[in-house]
From TrEMBL:
PANTHER family: PHAGE INFECTION PROTEIN, TRANSPORT PERMEASE YVFS-RELATED. It comes from the Bacteria. This is ABC transporter permease. Signal peptide: none annotated. Residues 16-376 form the ABC-2 type transporter transmembrane domain. InterPro entries: ABC2_TM, T7SS_ABC-Transporter. Keywords: Membrane, Transmembrane, Transmembrane helix. It is a multi-pass membrane protein. Pfam families: ABC2_membrane_3. The keyword Transmembrane applies. It is found in: Membrane. Its main location: membrane.
Length: 393
């Protein structure tokens, strides 16, 4: 029992207990507040509606605008919508072809195509697919009902004008009613077009896994480097020499991790959609941004800054868009998302693994985030006094 008491007195033990408590509190608070009301905000998902049929297609298009619980944009051309979908500016394209009415009048199935970008958050993809299927079922019911009513009314009129005996009309009417009941009640089919798709469940987990592993690794590394930083300062090394040596180490480690990650992706036979050096440089920027951002709280507050990194970890997992689309988050969390590197890391990894328009658009935000984080660190180091040299007796 004495040993247990001594263990509890150690500052490292107290810090460990506090860290465990903070992890629990932060994750509960951030995740539950961020995902509260997500289902209601599904209306924020953007859809481009392209209708090329001016008859039955127009009727369906109007129903889509009125009944789909999404933000509908009818102003885009097909090429513009495809580009926007690849850039994740919209989440789905609904396309009604120019032969839609002709297909309804023939024995063939009319088709509505729903294009969904697979290089996006899982929750959003699944929700859109369910909405597309449900809407098509509803439209089928309405169209089939209208066809039956119109067909029945037309036949009834023709029979009345035929001059046949009432008994013959009644018999023919019964037979025609039986025939109408065999009419296809699902004349329209949904074509779910999954663009930028990839095979294997493991590949779909890469964006979230890499974001999580990269930032946790950065947090852990910086915690150890912070201890080394304090030690070197107490040994008489100049604070600026220690600081810039730390940044050099960040660059070297980031370069190595980028090579290692690409090698692991190749080892597990996960296909990438971009050239090697593009992927390597992008991963280098991601790792470097995580290392620089995760050192900010430690440089500002010392080891206690680890609590700030715990908050950052939770915030980034929630707002990066790997689980729930950013458009479905509240305004506050959308703003937070735009300020954190994980958002641009996730976007890039979706493109690397699934496909899209490239990752170069992610470079500048990552560089700007690093520049701001580095500037904060430089100001803090400038204000910091040189640590006194430790003496040994």
């Amino acid at each position: 029992m004495n040993t247990f008491k001594q263990l509890l007195k150690l500052p490292q033990t107290k810090a460990g207990i506090v860290t465990a408590l903070v992890f629990q509190l932060v994750f509960f608070f951030v995740w539950l507040t961020a995902y509260d009301g997500v289902q209601e905000r599904i209306t924020e998902l953007k859809v481009a509606l392209i209708n090329e049929d001016e008859q039955a297609g127009q009727m369906v298009a109007e129903q889509i605008e009125q009944n789909l619980p999404l933000t509908i944009d009818t102003s885009m051309s097909e090429d513009e919508a495809t580009e926007a979908l690849n850039n994740r500016e919209i989440q789905m394209i609904v396309h009604i072809p120019d032969n839609f009415t002709d297909m309804l009048r023939s024995d063939e199935k009319a088709e509505i195509t729903y294009s969904i970008n697979q290089a996006s958050a899982t929750v959003g993809k699944q929700a859109l697919e369910q909405i597309a299927t449900k809407f098509t079922t509803t439209v089928n019911e309405q169209v089939a009902k209208q066809q039956l009513v119109m067909g029945g009314e037309q036949l009834a009129t023709q029979l009345e004008e035929s001059g046949l005996p009432e008994q013959a009309i009644a018999t023919i009417g019964e037979e025609l009613t039986t025939s109408l009941e065999t009419v296809d009640v699902a004349p329209i089919q949904a074509n779910i077009n999954k663009i930028n798709d990839t095979e294997g469940f493991a590949a779909t987990m890469i964006p979230m896994m890499l974001v999580l592993a990269s930032f946790v690794g950065s947090m852990t590394m910086n915690m150890q480097i912070q201890i080394a930083d304090i030690t070197l300062n107490r040994q008489g090394f100049k604070k600026w020499n220690v600081f810039w040596s730390r940044q050099l180490l960040n660059v070297i480690v980031s370069a190595g991790l980028a090579f290692l990650t690409y090698g692991l992706i190749a080892l597990f036979d996960i296909q990438v959609t971009l050239p090697f050096w593009t992927v390597w440089f992008y991963q280098f920027l991601v790792f470097l941004s995580f290392l620089i951002v995760s050192q900010v709280f430690l440089i500002l507050f010392g080891p206690a800054g680890m609590m700030g990194n715990i908050v950052l970890l939770s915030m980034q997992l929630v707002t990066s868009g790997v689980i729930v689309p950013i458009a479905m988050l509240s305004t506050f969390y959308q703003t937070v998302s735009s300020l954190l590197p994980a958002t641009y890391a996730a976007d890039g990894y979706f493109t690397v693994i699934f496909g899209g328009t490239g990752v170069t658009q992610e470079f500048m935000p990552l560089i700007l985030i690093m520049a701001v984080a580095l500037a904060i660190c430089i100001v803090r180091i400038a204000l910091k006094k040189q640590a006194p040299v430790a003496t040994t007796k």
